Amino acid sequence: MTELRLRVNGATTVLSLPPQVSLLDALREHLGLTGTKKGCDQGACGACTVLADGVRINSCLALAVQYEDAEITTIEGLDHPLQTAFVRHDGLQCGYCTPGQLCSAVGMLAEHRAAPDGELTGAEIRERMSGNLCRCGAYNGIVDAIQEVAS
Ligand code: FES
């Protein structure tokens, strides 16, 4: 077991975990933050996306111990205009991928603000969000919501 301080959504919790526990499992199983979803558990779907110091990461591929000094934001702590934009544009159907889509979009917009390299067209947003899959196919609404907030 490893003793670990995790700072999530502004609260610090000390956990005792085996060192191989992923950040995703630490959030869901040990902190009860089940808003972050487990899809593939191997870095292919993006359902588990959270923000670490504002940078989007796949929490299924991250060890919790790697993020002891980071500020983790999950969907439970997110407060961003994208959330209402997703609702306005029907950027979801079943909603399973939505927490990951939102965290990824927030991180993507921050990346683009930090290093602007052209307009965020629909095609560009699709490319930058290609790590987040939606099995319901709500991509048009997702792209429209992101484009509205980005403009
Ligand atoms: Fe992490 Fe699919 S659950 S990428």
TrEMBL record:
Keywords: Iron, Metal-binding, Oxidoreductase. Residues 2-78 form the 2Fe-2S ferredoxin-type domain. It holds the Pfam family Fer2. InterPro entries: 2Fe-2S-bd (IPR002888), 2Fe-2S-bd_dom_sf (IPR036884), 2Fe-2S_ferredoxin-like_sf (IPR036010), 2Fe-2S_ferredoxin-type (IPR001041), 2Fe2S_fd_BS (IPR006058), Aldehyde_Oxdr_Iron-Sulfur (IPR052914), Beta-grasp_dom_sf (IPR012675). This is Xanthine dehydrogenase YagT iron-sulfur-binding subunit. It comes from Amycolatopsis magusensis.
